[in-house]
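Hello,

I think I submitted the flavin mononucleotide job twice by accident. Can you confirm which output corresponds to this input? Input:
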Amino acid sequence: MSMIDYEGLKKETGGRRKLLKKVIAINSSKRKKRTYSLLQQMKDKLKKENIKVDIINLSDYKIEQCIGCEMCLRNNECKINDDVKTLMDLLKEYDGIILSTPVYMNNVCGRLKVFVDRTCKWMHRPELVAVPIMFVVTTAGSGAKRTLEYLENISLQWGTFATDKIYRKARTLSIPIILKEYKSFVKHIFMSKNFYRPSINQLIQFQVQKVLADKILIIDKEYWKMKGWMYKDYFFDADISLVNLVVSKIFYKFLSSRIRKVEQ
Ligand SMILES: Cc1cc2nc3c(=O)[nH]c(=O)nc-3n(C[C@H](O)[C@H](O)[C@H](O)COP(=O)(O)O)c2cc1C
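Support: Only one job matched these inputs. Its output is below.
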């Protein structure tokens, strides 16, 4: 049985809670050990919330390093023939994402970074807008905070909606995951997008991407126009606080006045 009291959320969820939702959990470690064990726990926990979790291992996919040609940015195509397109398409099929990594040298592991580099076009033309995302990190002892900050930054660039963060050190790995650690993720999966409250970072990132779309690449501008984002304050109608709205609008005006239009 679900442990979350959704009574207060009835209005927001509008009954959608009854529907089965799907989440993809990405294990970036080559091993199926510490990080994977937390993903397994999450899978069991979320099953009780009517959410099915598919765990995938990045190491099962062929992911080559970016060669820096910028074809994905300029032509929306990548010359490299591997599994990255399949993976990116796969992510779009889910109602939520759990992104995980072991800490390597105080940051995400290289396997995840190589994949993230290859998703660079999503920074210009986001395709995972409003998809709730949460992060799972394990470490021997150090670097979790910095790694989580970086994961949040990836989320900003993808346009996903960052919710919860779970991390364990080697000595705290046996502490079971509790509801408080993933409640926001579950809530956002069932909640109507109109009730989402974007942070100031999310609003600012939106404005940065909008200025880039307006000034730099025509392909981006066409995409943003097609999506109807050019004259918006955020990707979708959300519950934006007045202060954040004003700050992000001022930021947009400032940035827009500083960046010159580049003809392709
Ligand atoms: C290449 C490498 C670099 C690592 N760097 C760090 C580090 O900077 N700080 C730390 O506390 N642990 C570090 N670790 C330990 C791992 O973060 C830790 O063992 C993690 O829980 C492994 O997750 P896994 O079992 O899912 O692979 C490193 C491990 C490896 C293999």
